[in-house]
């Protein structure tokens, strides 16, 4: 009889421990708002949470890269627009100096204006943002365009010394882009500046035919700059789309993680109440068994 009672008592103690653990778990869920506090609480769910957290960390990095790339592309866009303005001004001067009736004093004035435009163009080509020089490709630490000067300090030529490609960045789960213009575009900027130098030389010689000869090149330069502006604009549109997708995916994953880890307050409250009732009943049953065991021992 004692053996049977002891067996029942052991089983009941085990049940009491289990119910006590459940009660503690539900109390933790309600106090912390989380249904998973340790990996052992739900290994499968915890594995899913860790996987989604890893994806969220990657999305944070993509978004950070996207912000840097967006800043670079915006700065490049602004600088290219400045070059376009310089190109338009130079074309207007070329039109004035090619009509065959330009006075010597006007040629001198046009030449002086062109010298200023060339210097502005060189400064713009060597624009530097927070992440380095904009038009040097992967070479972002040194000025990509170098100029040669005559004895009077006038620019006589411009050389591109940057790389052939720009740094690429992963800005989305399936997107890797370079916010920098490529070497071909950058060389076209150097060509444009050299055409301005040629135009200035034609103004200095006061030669209308020489001015006319430069105009087709200036038109090609403006077309190239407009193409570059359009390309950078397309990159910005892609970056905006990537960032929107990054944020949407992050929010979705955040919701899934919350669903896997957050406690259902209503359910946890009911479960706690049931566990408390069962625990109390088990304690009462245990007390009766202990009384019975004691009487059997005394008898």
Which SSEs are present, and which pair or pack?
Elements: H1 2-32, H2 43-97, H3 104-125, E1 128-129, E2 132-133, E3 145-149, E4 155-160, E5 169-172, E6 175-177, H4 183-204, H5 208-261, H6 265-298
Antiparallel strand pairs: 1-2, 3-4, 5-6
Helix pairs in contact: 1-6, 2-3, 2-4, 2-5, 3-4, 4-5
Which characteristics define this entry?
299 residues; f41 fragment of flagellin, N-terminal domain; 2 domains; rod-shaped
Walk me through the structure.
- The chain has 299 residues and is mainly α.
- The strands form three sheets. A two-stranded antiparallel ribbon has the order 1-2. It has a two-stranded antiparallel ribbon with strand order 3-4.
- Helices cover 73% and strands 7% of the residues.
- β3 (145-149) and β4 (155-160) form a beta hairpin.
- The chain has helices at 2-32, 43-97, 104-125, 183-204, 208-261, 265-298; strands at residues 128-129, 132-133, 145-149, 155-160, 169-172, 175-177.
- Residues 261-265 have low confidence and may be disordered.
- α2 (43-97) packs antiparallel against α3 (104-125), α2 (43-97) packs parallel to α4 (183-204) and α2 (43-97) packs antiparallel against α5 (208-261).
- The protein has two domains: 2-35 and 265-298; 52-255, f41 fragment of flagellin, N-terminal domain, CATH 1.20.1330.
Task: Tell me the Rg in angstroms.
Answer: 38 Å
Uncertain parts: 261-265
The coarse silhouette is rod-shaped
Order of helices and strands: HHHEEEEEEHHH
The CA-CA distance between the termini, in Å, is 12 Å
- Beta strand count: 6
Q: β content, as a range?
A: 5-15%
Mean pLDDT: 83
CATH topology of the largest domain: f41 fragment of flagellin, N-terminal domain
Helix and strand content put the structural class at: mainly alpha
């Amino acid at each position: 009889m004692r053996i049977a009672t002891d067996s029942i008592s052991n089983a009941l103690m085990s049940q009491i421990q289990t119910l006590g653990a459940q009660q503690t778990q539900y109390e933790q869920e309600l106090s912390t708002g989380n249904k998973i506090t340790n990996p052992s609480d739900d290994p499968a769910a915890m594995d899913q949470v860790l996987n989604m957290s890893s994806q969220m960390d990657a999305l944070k990095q993509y978004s950070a890269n996207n912000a840097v790339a967006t800043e670079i592309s915006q700065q490049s866009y602004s600088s290219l627009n400045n070059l376009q303005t310089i190109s338009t001004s130079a074309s207007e001067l070329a039109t004035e100096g090619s009509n065959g009736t330009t006075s010597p004093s006007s040629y001198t004035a046009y030449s002086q204006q062109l010298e200023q435009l060339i210097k502005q163009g060189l400064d713009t080509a060597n624009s530097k943002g927070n992440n380095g020089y904009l038009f040097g490709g992967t070479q972002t630490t040194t000025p990509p365009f170098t100029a040669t000067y005559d004895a009077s300090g006038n620019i006589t030529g411009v050389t591109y010394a940057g790389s052939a490609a720009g740094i690429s960045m992963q800005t989305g789960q399936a997107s890797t882009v370079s916010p920098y213009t490529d070497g071909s575009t950058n060389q076209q900027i150097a060509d444009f500046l050299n055409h301005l130098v040629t135009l200035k030389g034609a103004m200095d010689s006061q030669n209308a035919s020489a001015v006319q000869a430069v105009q087709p090149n200036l038109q090609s330069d403006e077309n190239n700059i407009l193409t570059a502006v359009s390309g950078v604009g397309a990159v910005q549109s892609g970056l905006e789309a990537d960032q929107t997708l990054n944020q949407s995916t992050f929010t979705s994953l955040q919701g899934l993680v919350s669903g896997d880890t957050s406690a259902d307050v209503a359910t946890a409250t009911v479960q706690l109440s049931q566990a408390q009732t069962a625990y109390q009943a088990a304690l009462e049953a245990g007390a009766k068994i202990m009384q019975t065991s004691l009487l059997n021992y005394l008898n």
